[in-house]
Amino acid sequence: MPKKDEGNQKQRFLNWEFLTLSINASMQTRAGGSIYRERKDNEDQGEYEKQKEIFRKSFRQELDNIVTDRGYRTLYNVTQEEHAKNISTLADTLTERHCDILRNGRFRIGSAQKGLNLYLKYLWCAGEIIEPPHCPIDGGLIVKLGSAFRGNSWTQIDDIERYKKVIAAAQNKGKKEAKSLAEWELHYWNDENVKY
């Protein structure tokens, strides 16, 4: 017979893994370079690495706080506007706290949306939350949207209005297939990546 706390421990484990995977994905360097600034010549390597770790912990805490405190874990449907504001706030908060370690002193909207949207996707797929208002935007999805968005790198997006245009185009693709945005992206992602 399972122990009373076992379900909570499983939930804590999954939440930690979902946060870790979301943060790692939002910090990919393929398309836009590192989110961190270069280490200065006279800067101690250990101190530089410590600043990066402090940033990651802060990012983790902010993602968890947003999801818990802003209605995503309830039956309340977070609106698209509220969600876009949460992405902007996440980018601005992390920029304010950690500009000294960030490339060009800024945590961009593209990386913030990827972290939050992917975390919500994991929670939704695990049955922990209702369907999220948006989906993670990445290079593959941008290519799928067609020529109007080619040349746009999700890691370089740092304007919430530009992000909203990408989301609107993805929503239109979903509507053509009679799917919500989150459902459409999930089907697209699985078709492109799951090979069994």
Tell me what you see in this structure.
This protein has 196 residues and is mostly helical. Helix 2 runs antiparallel to helix 3 and helix 3 (80-98) crosses helix 4. The chain has helices at residues 6-26, 45-69, 80-98, 109-125, 139-144, 160-176, 181-193. The mean pLDDT is 90. It has one domain.
Task: Describe the secondary structure blueprint for this structure.
Elements: H1 6-26, H2 45-69, H3 80-98, H4 109-125, H5 139-144, H6 160-176, H7 181-193
* Radius of gyration computed on alpha carbons: 18 Å
By secondary-structure content and strand pairing, the structural class works out as: mainly alpha
Report how far the terminal alpha carbons are from each other: 34 Å
- Overall domain count: 1
Any low-confidence stretches, pLDDT <50, length ≥5?
none
Beta strand count: 0
Helix and strand pattern? HHHHHHH
On the 0 to 100 scale, the average pLDDT is 90
What percent of residues adopt helix (DSSP H or I)?
Answer: 55-70%
Tell me the β content. Answer: under 5%
Alpha plus pi helix count: 7
